[in-house]
Write a structure and sequence with these properties.
It is a single chain. The protein has about 500 residues and is α/β, with parallel strands linked by helices. The protein has 3 domains: about 220 residues, P-loop containing nucleotide triphosphate hydrolases (Rossmann fold, 3-Layer(aba) Sandwich); about 70 residues, no CATH class; about 80 residues. It has 22 helices and 11 strands. A 9-stranded mixed sheet has the order 4-3-7-2-8-1-9-10-11, sandwiched between helices. A two-stranded antiparallel sheet has the order 5-6. Helix 5 links the parallel strand 9 and strand 10. It is globular and about 75 Å long. About 5% of the residues have low confidence. Bound molecules: guanosine-5'-triphosphate and magnesium ion.
Length: about 500
């Protein structure tokens, strides 16, 4: 068991003897369970940003409903388990009850039994799925919804001040930077344990296929925009990176049916000169033309699943014989949707760091209780213990230093700051990632590069021209490099 998780567990156990009210006991019990479970990642963003669709793409199954319906207004957890089950957790604190459900064209349709969405705290869907093994995904209602109360629910869920069960990390979907996007992100960034903390948030430039109006180069445009957003100072304070993803295409590609493949193939085999005019717009595509393959209803179904971009892209792939089976088409489309990049980022930034993020959540929960009643006997002792864990645990220092650099609190040359962030693990915590090497880098190459970087940051830290905050940040990087060198040497012996 990871040492940090163990320290967090001891702290929570200690807190259980201090905070004994029924509510506090519940929260602390939950905190202990969380330390053993997968990381919780919330998918947040404005209404219809494509949250539920992206969740399905990440799981590789159509689970979350993506249309209207009462359930899209409720925070819904999707977690791995042995049985298929849906639990309704009422808002009034009464015990959770099991709900009936069935699957409608894939998506789970939950029978709320006449309950109003506002009376429900959350739905918990347990679903045996390898896509949920490492991460529990939390679908949140869109902000800016027609009803103020629904968006408030999303704020409440994401704001750790108000909630005992926030997420450990957040995936924030947006189409453009909007002041309300920034507000929601800021709400999620609690300012106590490691303030303000971009390390547990990643932004997704969602519905990326629509950015270039469905043109074949839409993803390239989306990538350029995402890069620009990623350099925006306001966003960099709040998130690690911006990744463009065509969520609908990813979801469809992951769940592609043989009928869909056959239908697209039929279209692709039709003379391009005759078909292409129908690909110019969604309206034209669904127009019924007896001379072209498929009925207008069938084309409408394809459009709903692929979007115009997906249909056009599939035509190009099938005509050029890049894909010659449904499995090949699925792979090609997933590859072009941006989903793989997002999955890699989730692994390097969240999954590989899940112990630190989970421990951080547990510390936050206890800290919050202590702050509610600082005079409570034991509160001060716990706060001191939190401080000691934070100061002693290098991963926390890495997190807060990265956050400080991102927030503009550390001044230095952009190249030094960028490299320092990398050494601290901003692009992943594996040695090759920290050193900016290739994944295939051998131990010797890692060692040589680590020593070079160590020398460089030591000189930087000791230089009389280095300002205090940069010197402090460089020292944290030096410690990361020393740990990396020690681990690399111990593998060698
Ligand atoms: N073209 C395109 N459409 C998308 C994409 N993602 C989602 N959609 C469509 O947008 C609509 C809303 O998608 P959802 O996934 O339900 O969005 P949401 O953010 O969960 O919506 P709420 O929960 O109601 O806030 C659906 O009709 C989707 O098919 C995408 O990447 N591209
Ligand atoms: Mg939704």
């Amino acid at each position: 068991m990871n040492e940090l998780v163990e320290q967090a567990r001891n702290l929570v156990v200690d807190a259980q003897s201090v905070f004994t009210s029924a509510d506090d006991a519940d929260v602390l019990r939950g905190s202990l369970e969380r330390l053993d479970g997968p990381l919780r990642v919330a998918i947040a963003g404005k209404v219809k940003a494509g949250k539920s669709t992206l969740l399905n793409a990440l799981v590789g199954e159509r689970l979350a409903p993506t249309d209207t319906g009462e359930c899209t207004k409720v925070v819904t957890w999707y977690k791995d388990g042995h049985t298929y089950q849906v639990m309704v957790h009422p808002r009034d604190g009464s015990p959770a009850v099991q709900a009936r459900f069935h699957r409608d064209e894939g998506a789970i349709e939950i029978d709320l039994d006449g309950r109003d969405a506002m009376s429900i705290d959350r739905l918990e869907v347990t679903w045996p799925s390898s896509g949920l093994r490492q991460l529990t995904l939390v679908d949140t209602p869109g902000i800016d919804s027609l009803t103020e109360s629904v968006s408030t629910r999303a704020f409440e869920f994401l704001d750790p001040e108000d909630n005992d069960t926030p997420a450990d990390a957040v995936l924030y979907l947006m189409k453009h930077i909007h002041s309300s996007d920034l507000r929601l992100l800021e709400a999620f960034h609690d300012d106590s344990v490691a303030s303000p903390n971009p390390v547990n948030a990643v932004a997704v430039l969602s519905r990326a296929d629509e950015i270039g109006a469905g043109r074949l180069d839409s993803m390239a445009s989306a990538r350029r925009i995402a890069k620009r957003y990623g350099q925006d100072g306001r966003l960099r304070r709040l998130i690690q990176v911006v990744v463009p993803v065509a969520g609908l295409l990813a979801e469809t590609a992951e769940t592609l049916t043989q009928w869909e493949y056959n239908s697209l193939k039929q279209l692709a085999d039709f003379p391009a000169a005759e078909l292409d005019p129908y690909l110019l717009s969604a309206d034209r595509f669904v127009e019924a033309k007896p001379e072209t393959p498929l009925t207008s209803l069938e084309r409408e179904q394809l459009l709903a699943r692929f979007g115009l971009f997906g249909v056009r892209l599939s035509m190009a792939l099938l005509r050029r014989k890049v894909a010659e089976s449904s499995a090949e088409l699925s792979d090609e489309l997933v590859g072009r949707s941006g989903l793989v990049e997002l999955q890699t980022i989730l692994t390097t930034l969240f999954v590989d760091r899940s112990d630190v993020l989970k421990a951080r959540s547990a510390l936050l929960a206890v800290e919050r209780m202590c702050n509610v009643d600082p005079t409570q006997e034991g509160s001060q002792r716990l706060l001191l213990a939190i401080e000691q864990i934070m100061a002693g645990a290098h991963p926390f220092n890495e997190l807060s230093t990265m956050a400080a650099i991102r927030s503009g609190w550390v001044s230095g040359k952009p190249a030094d700051l960028g490299d320092l962030e990398r050494v601290l693990g901003a692009g992943g915590t594996a040695p090759w990632q920290r050193l900016g090497l290739d994944e295939s880098a051998e131990r010797d190459a890692i060692s040589t590069m680590a020593i070079t970087e160590l020398g460089r940051f030591q000189r930087l830290a000791e230089s009389p021209f280095t300002v205090h905050d940069l010197g402090m940040a460089a020292r944290v990087g030096i410690r990361s490099l020393e740990a990396l060198i020690a681990a690399n040497t111990s593998v060698a012996t």
